[in-house]
Amino acid sequence: MNYLETLQRLNACHGPSGDERDVAALLKELGAPYVDDCHFDVMGNLILHKKGSGPRVMFAAHMDSLGLIVTHIED
Predict the structure, then answer these.
(1) Chain mean pLDDT for the chain
(2) Do the Cβ atoms of 30 and 6 come closer than 8 Å?
């Protein structure tokens, strides 16, 4: 899969604040082939771990997107 397809898949995921499950599931699917362990913690954070003896690196990012509800439209 190329970068553009990956970005399109991520962008198409439904992930408003508090309901990031679809985004997390896709990230887990995309990252699983490159890591030794994948799991979710009790807060719903996705943890991907690659074992090794080198320096430790952490990549942290938000998985949610802006969620808006339209309640009224004026002419």
Answers:
(1) 90
(2) yes
Of the chain, the percentage scoring pLDDT greater than 70 comes to 99
pLDDT for position 69: 83
Contact at 8 Å (CB) between 64 and 23?
A: yes
Sign of CA dihedral 68, 69, 71, 74: positive
Of the candidates 54, 67, 58, 53, which has an alpha carbon nearest to the alpha carbon of residue 20? 67
Residue 18: partners with Cβ closer than 8 Å, 6 or more residues away = 64
Report how far residue 24's alpha carbon sits from residue 10's, in angstroms, rounded to the nearest whole number: 10
